[in-house]
From TrEMBL:
Annotated region (Disordered), positions in chain: 383-402
Topology class, membrane: Multi-pass membrane protein
Protein name: MFS transporter
Cited Pfam families: MFS_1
Source domain of life: Bacteria
Ranges that cross the membrane: 42-60, 72-93, 99-121, 128-146, 158-178, 199-224, 236-255, 262-283, 289-309, 330-352, 358-377
């Protein structure tokens, strides 16, 4: 494994920790600033929206410099955002710090995916991407529970100060280990946006929104589901989320390994199985053991889709992959927001805490149908035209010359 992948994984660990640890210390933050829990929830919503808008914005800005320099800049911004959150005197400053940190999220994973893929041979690209995302999955196993414990014991400001320190380590790792390749040849705003003329890029992002949205339809409301339906104690929810993180870790590695061998079959299996498991969760959520097992499987199957989807975007936008890759990271967070909203609607309708699982199954099942469409279009496209801007988007001219 190239050491540069380790540096990227450390950065991913810090980003994953700061994204999710806020959920564990939200009551303490609300008490500190004397705001309600729903108001404090803007620290979660603001972060997600920052990822969606920051991914394309900062990636476009990054076309003017090398990918290594852009990664260093992003980690520096990440450190500033978390340090600002740690020292925030009022709630508005805390929210600003969260948004600053979130702006780096999509661009880091988008640019980092391209860098990781370029560090290895073509047949190992998905595995390399999955190794970078390992940092994000480990964050859910170690970083989030540990950060929550520290925040509850020593104060949430200490948690965010530690996360800022992780950003410094990631920055130094990128600076020392990621090779300098210069500015990508032909990289400019026009060429990056040209990738979106390829309908396959849009299909991949739609699969990301719906597939990962299926996961978050269930996970967003997992605490009331586990306490009210499965009869777990509130304290047990932390450990259930650790199991979910373990599933993410395993699924991410398996997804990368098998996507290098058979990308589309891997997507078919993971999305189909995810939809089925989400359906089953409506029943298994009523039993403690079954609920824990199902939650682990949802994490595994949900994150098994990440390396193949990210590699699919890189392959389809090979002429200018950076912006498309970052936009696909934004699509993950768009899926999170969509799923949380839809899950809230069915709960408010009186359908119960397990009803978001039906929503999740529907979203993931739709993503599976889109993957069939993407595979069908790919078979109709000559190999020499794959990765070019949208040859298949022209009606009845699947092999049009450009």
């Amino acid at each position: 494994m190239p050491l540069a992948l380790l540096a990227l994984a450390i950065g991913a660990f810090g980003i994953g920790t700061t994204e999710f640890v806020i959920m564990g210390v939200l009551p303490q933050v609300a008490d500190t600033f004397d705001v309600s829990i729903p108001t404090a929830g803007w620290l979660v919503t603001g972060y997600a929206l920052g990822v969606v808008f920051g991914a394309p914005l900062l990636t476009v800005m990054g076309t003017k410099v090398s990918r290594k320099k852009m990664l260093i800049l992003l980690m520096g911004l990440f450190v500033v955002g978390n340090a600002l959150s740690a020292a925030a005197p009022v709630f508005g400053v805390m929210l600003l710090g969260r948004i600053i940190a979130s702006l780096t999220h999509g661009a880091f994973f988008g640019i980092g995916s391209v860098v990781a893929a370029d560090l290895v041979a073509p047949h190992k690209r998905a595995s390399a991407i999955s190794l970078m995302f390992t940092g994000l999955t480990i964050a859910n196993i170690v970083g989030v529970p540990l950060g929550t414990h520290i925040g509850q014991a020593a104060g949430w400001r200490v948690t965010f100060a530690i996360v800022a320190s992780l950003g410094v380590v990631g920055l130094l790792g990128v600076a020392g280990l990621v090779p300098e390749t210069g500015r990508p040849e032909g990289a400019d705003v026009r060429s990056e946006f040209a990738a979106f003329r390829n309908v396959q890029v849009w299909l991949a992002m739609a699969m990301t929104v719906l597939g990962y949205g299926g996961v978050f339809a269930a996970i967003t409301y997992v605490a009331p589901m586990m306490t009210e339906v499965a009869d777990y104690s509130a304290g047990a929810v932390t450990w259930l989320l650790v199991l979910f993180g373990v599933g993410m870790f395993a699924g991410n590695l398996l997804g990368g390994r098998f996507a290098d061998k058979a990308l589309m079959p891997m997507l078919f299996v993971s999305l189909g199985a995810l939809a089925l498991v989400l359906l089953l969760f409506t029943a298994t959520a009523h039993d403690k053991f079954s609920a824990a097992v199902t939650l682990t499987l949802i994490g595994a199957l949900g994150f098994a889709t990440v390396p193949p989807l990210q590699k699919w975007v890189l392959d389809q936008a090979s002429a200018a992959p950076t912006l498309a890759s970052a936009a696909n990271i934004g699509a993950f967070n768009l899926g999170n927001a969509l799923a949380a909203w839809l899950g809230g609607i069915v709960i408010d309708a009186g359908l119960g805490y397990t009803s978001p699982n039906w929503v999740g199954a529907l979203l993931s099942g739709t993503a599976l149908l889109l993957s069939f469409l993407a595979a069908f279009l790919d078979r109709r496209t000559p190999p020499s035209h794959r990765g070019a801007p949208a040859p298949e988007i022209r009606e009845n001219v699947p092999s049009a010359q450009h």
